[in-house]
Amino acid sequence: MSRLESLTALHGPARLPGYDPQAHGRGIVHLGIGAFHRAHQAVMTDDALAAQGGDWRITGVSLRSTEVAQALNPQNGLYTLIERGAAGTSARVIGAIRDVIAADPAATLAALVDAQVRIVTLTVTEKGYGIDRARRAPDPRHPAVAADLADPAHPSGALGLLTEALRLRRAAGVAPFTVLCCDNLPENGALLRDGVTGFARMRDADLADWIAAEVAFPSSMVDRITPAATAETLAEAERQTGCTDLAAIETEPFLQWVIEDHFPTGRPAWEAGGALFVSDVAPYERMKLTMLNGSHSMLAYAGFLSGKKYVRDVMADPALAALVARHHAAAASVLPPLPGIDLAAYAAALQDRFRNPAIAHETFQIAMDGTEKLPQRIFQPALVALEQGLPLRPFAFATAAWMRYALGETDAGQAYALRDPREAEIRTALAGLPRDAAAIGAALMDLPGFLPPALRDAADWRRSVTEALGLILAQGMAHAVGHEAEA
Ligand code: CS2
């Protein structure tokens, strides 16, 4: 079977791009080209190109790995997007990606300074930035931040690359690009602006002032559940295109992107793909981070340790499903009202999406990087609940489930990798402790900069976490879940 490398080679039911990809130049560099980008932004860019044209094709960058480049470059950036829903499967070929740069900082910098590039977008995951969120400043202990501060003219991390590219553009009299963060972080545009200006300030105060004044950092909320591709994904792509496609991905039918409309350098007509442009993304972001992602983290820890491999298996378990619904209600109760959004309907739709029988989304995948995720997903709403005298237990249970997961071993004694940037610190904090909820709870809650101080120091919160962890340690996760759901 021939490789998917030109649209003319295709024969199968997959829908084709509604434009000629080769007729459009590049306007975007995307840092962090994983499955999520290919299921989300690239798709809406494809719709925008079909609807309104423009030179907005994307150069994707893998900062470290070469896998995606090896799959996509021989295919001229073409790949199959498979959507799997309860109602069936459909597929389309996406033409929005022009090429991929892999683990090549010099080539990445060259792309970033290209005057044709007007937007730089990012999905490098929460831990990829190296921003200390408590101080809202670059974290000099982050390996890429440290390396880029030591040699700022040869950057390889997100903050260093953006700063050096903006410096070079300014020196060459080229207008700056707009920076659009697409990671699951609160007020992600403002956070990234603080990271980049903070990094620039450590080099050159004048550059930092110029970036603060001249560069737009709109915020955005992104949503599409995208599991890692499997052999079955590639087999389905073959059926859909009649070609071998090593870059195919699969995702759910649901797709949402809410973007702050602040693009002084222009933008694609992403609304053609359904993007919603608003003046303030924060309420949407908070809803999504605390309801979808918060319940995802809770169910990942509780589900994985109850022997559930996929999110759909979690939802098929009545006690776990009840805890997911409880979490949604608790998260909704601390959200400010959002005009036009019915939070009960949003919760019901989330539960439907989690139940999608055609999507194999691993709890182990969601469980990684807990220390990077819990602050905005669990601690932020818990703090509001504390302030408003609302129930803390759903958030305390989620925290306790993570703590139990941090022990690194199932109830049957099987070890697994924690996959967290603070893994070594967690191990040190737990070393030599008895298997005791108060001791473990205190050690993990007191990790520096992890919990907001007002939550960390609240006796009600500490008691609730310790009780939930005590239950989990005494009964094992599966039984504790049953008990918790009945309470
Ligand atoms: C998940 C997210 O892995 C995780 O932590 O919660 O990737 C989630 O699937 C997406 O944010 C959905 O939009």
Structure write-up:
By secondary structure, the chain is of the alpha/beta class. The chain folds into 2 domains: 7-278, Rossmann fold, CATH 3.40.50.720; 282-486, N-(1-d-carboxylethyl)-l-norvaline Dehydrogenase, domain 2. The protein contains 21 helices and 13 strands. It has helices at residues 35-39, 41-52, 67-72, 105-113, 143-150, 158-171, 188-201, 205-214, 231-241, 282-305, 311-315, 318-333, 343-355, 363-367, 370-388, 393-405, 423-430, 437-445, 453-456, 459-475, 477-486; strands at residues 26-31, 57-62, 79-85, 88-94, 97-102, 119-122, 131-132, 137-138, 178-181, 220-223, 249-251, 256-260, 276-278. A 5-stranded parallel sheet has the order 5-2-1-6-9, with helices on both faces. Strand 7 (131-132) and strand 8 (137-138) form a beta hairpin. Helix 10 crosses helix 16 (393-405). The longest helix has 24 residues, at 282-305. The chain is globular, with a radius of gyration of 23 Å. D-mannonic acid binds next to helix 10 and helix 14.
